[in-house]
TrEMBL record:
Residues 607-631 are annotated as: Disordered. This is OmpA family protein. It is found in: Cell outer membrane. TPR repeats lie at residues 54-87. Keywords: Cell outer membrane, Membrane, TPR repeat. Its main location: membrane.
Amino acid sequence: MRKAIVFLFLILAVTAQGKRKPSLKKADKYFARTTYVQAKDEYTRLLRGRHTPNYIYQQLALCYDELGLSVQAAQYYAKALEQDPALNVEFYYRLAYNLAQNGRYEAAEVAMRKFAKGAPEDARTHYFLQHAKEYPTAGANPSTYFVEESGINDSFYADHSVSWSTTDTLLFVSNRTKYKQKWVRRLFEVREKGTSLPNTGIYQAMIKSKDEPVYEHSLVRGRINRRFMDGQAVMHPSNKLIYFTSESYRHRKFRKNKTVKQRQGMMSLFWAERKGKKWRKIKVLPFVQEGFTYVNPFITPKGDYLYFASNQPGSIGGLDLWRVSIEEDGKTFGEPEHLGDRINTGYNEDYPFISGDNTLYFTSDRWGGYGGLDIYALDLNDSQAKPQNLGEGINTPKDDFNWVYNSQREYGFLSTNRIGRQDIYRVKPICGTQVSGVVQDGETKDVLAGVQLTFVDISRQVLAEVQTDAQGRFTVEVPCDKAYVIKVEKEEYFYKEEEGKSKKEETDLKPILLRKQVQPQIQDNKIVLNDIPFGFDQATITAVGAHELDRLVAFMQEHQTMRILIVAHTDQVGKEKYNKKLSQARADATAQYLYDKGIDAQRVETKGMGSSEPKVPCKTCTDEENQQNRRSEFIILQR
C-alpha cells in the first residue's frame, strides 16, 4: 500500500511538471535573447481568446516577423492594431510589409496609408506617396528570364548569397551542418539562437557546364569559417584577397543587452589573405564605423571599387548602397561614396551587382514591388534611367534577392525563399517552345472540351494556362528545356497532375486521360476516398489532396447530421513519438480544410496514430509499402 501511494505521488508530480503554467517572464526572456522559436511558443501559451492582452499579440507578431512567417505575422499585427489603433506606427508598416508578402497588395496599401499618416516625415512615406498605386498586377510585367534548380541547394538548410569567384567557381552562404558525425555536431557546432540552426558559413561550388547543375560543394578553408555567422563573400581579381560579411565579434565589437546580460553582434565587412589553400590574417575593413551594419560586398572586375550595403551616417533610411575605391594592393581604401537617391530610398537597398554592360542590379523592399525583397536593375550608362523591377517570375511575393549574371555564359543565379526556405536558383533568358496535346475521357476515350490545364515549374510558379478546344486539344508556349507539372482540372472529373520536360523543338504529348468522379462510397463504416498526399515530413494540404477533400465536403453537405473521425497514419520510418506528432498535425490540417470550406467543427474529430497501425506490417518496407501505410481514414461516428 505504501509503495502504491509513493508511486501515485510520483505520477502526480510528473503530471504537474508536464503542465507547467505559461510564463510571460520566460517568454520575454526568450525574446530578449532572440530565441524567437521558443519565445513564440511561450507567448502562444499565453493566448486567452478575446481576453488576450494586446502585448501578447504584439510580441507574437514580432516573433513571427523575425522568423519570416508572414501569414502569422500579418495576422497578429492586425489583431494588435485592431485592439489598439494608437500603437507605434511602425506596426502599420510591418503589417503592410507582411501583407504584401502574401500578395494582399490592396490591404497593404491601406496599412501603408495609416503608416504614412502617423509618420509623414519618414523617407518611406515620401516614396510611398509618390508610388502608392504601383503595386503589381498578375501578368502585367512578365520577366524575360526563367528560374530553375541550381544543384547547390540542401533540402533542409538555407543556401543563398552567391558571387562569382572565377568563371567556373561560385561562392555562396549556407547554414548546412559542417560536421557529419552527430556527436561532433553536439560538441562543436555553434547554432543561431533565433532558429536553432547552425551558424552560416561560406562555401564554394564548381560549375559543371552551362547546361548542367552545379556540383562539388565544399567549405572554404581557413579562419573564415569558425564560430561566427558569415555572409556574402567576393574575391579580389588577384585571387589573393577575399572580402566577406561576418559578425562584429571578429573585431571584438558588439552591443550589450543588459536585460539578459548578453552581447549582440552586428554584421560588418572583413578581408582575409590567401596562404596556400587557406585564408588567414582576417581584418576589419578600415572604413567601417563602429555601431553600424556593413553587408554583402561586390567588387568590380578591375578591382577598383567595392560596392556594399550599409546604414552608416549619410544613409537615407535602412540599408543604402555605397561604394569605396580600392588601390592596387586591395588593402588601401578611399572614402565611401553614397550612390544617391536615384537608387536609394527610405527602404532597404542591398546586394549590389554590376554586369558587363554596366547595369546595376540590386535588391530592395521598397513599396511597389511584389512583396518582401525584389530585384531591380538600373542602366548606369543612362543618367536619366530609373530602377526597373525585373518582373514576375524573377520576383514573387516572398523575398527574392542577390542577382548575379554572367553574360558570356548566358546564365546567372538568384537567391529566394519563395518555397519557404532560402535557396539558390539558376536563371536563364527565356527560350520559348510549343507543347501540344489532347485530353480524353479515360474510359470512353471521348475528347474533352473546356478542360483547364495549368503548367507550373518545380517551384509551382505558373508558366502557362490554357483550355482545351472543341476537339479536346491544347497548345501552349513554355520555356525550352524546362521541367514542368501540368495541373489538369474539369468539373465531374478527378483532378490530375502530369510531369514533363520541354524541349527546344515543338512537342506533342501523349493523350491525357481523366477519370470521371463518383460519389464517395461507404465501406465498413468508413468514407472511402483516394489518397490525401502530403509532402515528406510536412502537414500541408496539397493541390491533389484539396481536390479530393472537396469531394468529402460535398458529401458531408449532403449528409448534414453526419459526424466523422479523421485518423491519420504515417509510414514506419522514423521514431514513433515524432510520427504520432506528425500524423496528428496532418489530421488537424485535414480538419482545418473542412472547417474553411464551411463544415461545422462539431462534426469533425481528429486522431493521429503515427505508425502504430500499419496497413502493411513490414520491417524493411519498400517505397510502395510505405506509401500504403501513409494514409488518412474517415470513420463515421454518426450518420
